[in-house]
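[Q] Does anyone have a clean structure-token version of this?
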Amino acid sequence: MCGIVGLFAPGRDAARLAYFGLYALQHRGQESAGIAAGDGGTLRSHKEMGLLGAIFNEEILAQLSGHIAVGHTRYSTTGSSIVVNAQPLLERSDIGEFALAHNGNLTNTDELRSLLPVGTVMQASSDTEVLAKLVVESSGTMIERIETAMQKARGAYSIVLCSENELFAFRDPWGVRPLCLGTFDDGGYVVASESCALATVGARYLRDVEAGEVVHVTRDGITSYHVHVKDEFPALCMFEYIYFARPDSKFDNRSIYVARHEMGRRLAREHPVDADCVMAVPDSAVPGGIGYATESGLPYVEGLIKNRYIGRTFISPDQSMRSRGVHLKFNPVVENLRGQRVVVVDDSIVRGTTTPRIVALLREAGAREVHLRITSPPILHPCYLGVDMASYDELIAANYTVEEIRAKTGADSLGYLSLDGLIASTGRKRDEMCLGCLTGVYPTEPAEHERAPHALTRSS
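[A] Here you go.
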């Protein structure tokens, strides 16, 4: 998923602002982080494996001087979790150096690699480096090179790129991954994966960067260009609404919190149950849990307390880490659960490894009944566009019925929100979303070597 931030902020310490912006986006990636900064003449960078707080200190940030910066916090999909794949990537071209940070996943990386000159030296193993090399090997101005890359690349990419004195941000023509634009009241601009990062650095949200748009920021101001490619149509990832985005963010000025709250309300109407209380699995399911309680009239209680220093188990790239993580991540509130018939609201069931442990944890704490309610439809298909959504073999809903999943989780009942209910909750139109993980229909075709037999692509 990754989190990216870019700043053009004359008179400000851009690297420090990027650091705090990335802190607001740490939920989008916890494997590595980096910042590159320019002062009008020199581009410097620092990146390492791990969390921001362990990577950067005052001494390192002081070395990243300048009014322009791009930053990245990584969650790997293409390319292994090693330091050479950490971003931003620094590249040298015949028009100067640049740093590039990418959120998304390309679906034609092998094809793009074949377009590079023979002998092109690759340091990393990620699709991001292939895209960066494509920019290097193109001709013309940076805007022209970006346009060339956008015409050739397929898949999901939201990107921030800076030279020593200019900032660029661009988003794939389908708009799969989020990207927004903000400004400081006294001048300067910020681009970030989510609007929550703008508030953190004291910037004001202006709008989302549009699908297929290139934003260019210099001392002369901001300009915008649109790149048109064949078969483009809007396709913002629905899983951003379900799980990934912070609830205090907004897409196209629509609140994520309000959407998730509405998912819970609709879920209560679609799958009511005779119970004593409602709880949510922290943190992303909390708005949905409150919505379910509001609609059902049942009291909302805290059933699980989350250890705030344990990362999201879904993000962990190692399955054995994911399996162990649930025991470290939650503690039950026994006083709220003992003898109760509990509705447990969660945002999704992907592999089905964590949910049975949560149900067992609640029963051990004394819950008399456990009724699972999920604020998304069953996850039936892998994601090829930037979410590590497993294979068909690993996706529990691709292999078992709802009743079989209920039995495997140990719950007394199980209800999923309908697809129509989910879409209506976002306030968006169905044809504005990527629903690939729910329907198997993708906005752009996966590469042949990774395409599953079930996968379909949507025609325009």
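[Q] Thanks! Anything notable?
[A] The radius of gyration is 22 Å.
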